[in-house]
User: Fold this.
Amino acid sequence: MPKFFFDVPEDGITKPDQEGLELPSSERAHQEAVRATTEMSMDAATTTHPHSVAVAVCDAAHHVICTASVSFDPGSLDE
Assistant:
């Protein structure tokens, strides 16, 4: 099975995935990136500040093959 790496860009710095995951296809790697960004956004959703999270999926040569991202804006309460 091919190995995919899930790098996380944050505050202008990319945190590279050193371990990677063996997955059957790039489609499955994309699905994993979507799941990861959703989870990361939910973890950060306890804040009242807008934020975004992203995951860049890289192949074994560390070329980006896709990126998944989620933006969160809780809005504001008009009182």
Remarks:
- Residues 3-72 form one domain.
